[in-house]
Amino acid sequence: MSALTRAELAHMVDHTLLAPTATPADVAALVAEGAALGVYSVCVSPSMIPLSVPEGLLVAVVCGFPSGKHTSAVKAIEAAESVALGADEVDMVIDVGAALAGDFAAVEADIASVRASTAGVVLKVIIESAALTDEAIVGASKAAMAAGANFVKTSTGFHPSGGASAHAVALMRATVGPDMGVKASGGIRTAEAALEMIAAGATRLGLSGTRAVLDGLDADGVDEAAATEDAAGY
Question: Catalytic residues per the record (predicted)?
């Protein structure tokens, strides 16, 4: 398996700023840095759009963030407003408690409500994998797939249980198969960790420290093949 180049890895990244204290100046700096690094998108809070971004840089916006405990109607309205304001992609949070309770019909219905309000844009479903059992990860991933989402995503990065793991990514990939996206996010701070997630099956990464990860790829010469040796279950 060949090494990933810096540009290839960068183009898998949603360059992210979701801090409650983020200012318009902070988001403008995020956009400028993301464009310079060659990332796929910038990911921000709904209140920070519309954004002026260079051609080729997409805008992702979170929905129901970070708890997922909003009603489906509220999530659908929030997502629709974000799309109207120029969001290219929406990252929604499920009701994690419903998944833990095994009520995957409710999880699917919640996702379907947001899917119906976001026609034409990429929908990513955050399942908060570190807070779930393996059974619940599988059930939530199946619900996202059944509801027509484009990606299933590990984490908000705000949950005390933690962020992405190679085990969760591999389980999500095994569940949704090769045709649906898997996004790893939360706690990925090094090139080695990023490549481990890719080796486990991630096709997108949510990073706040994108420059450090890319610089680590250059400095360490870490490649995807080496990461594969450490990836769990895939």
Answer: 91 (proton donor/acceptor), 153 (schiff-base intermediate with acetaldehyde), 183 (proton donor/acceptor)
Domain ranges of the chain: 6-230
Under DSSP, the state recorded for 88 is S
Architecture of the domain whose range is 6-230:
Alpha-Beta Barrel (3.20)
- Residues catalogued as catalytic: 91, 153, 183
In sequence order, what are the beta bridge partners of 15?
Answer: 42, 207
Dihedral over Cα of 220, 223, 228, 229: its sign = negative
pLDDT for 131-160, tens place per residue? 999 999 999 999 999 999 999 999 999 999
Q: Are 61 and 49 in contact (CB under 8 A)?
A: yes
Take residue 207 and report the two structure tokens written for it. Answer: 């990073």
Non-local CB neighbours of 140 within 8 Å, separated by 6+ positions: 94, 99, 104, 107, 125, 127, 132, 152
Rounded Cα–Cα distance for residues 40 and 95 (Å): 27
pTM flag (> 0.85): yes
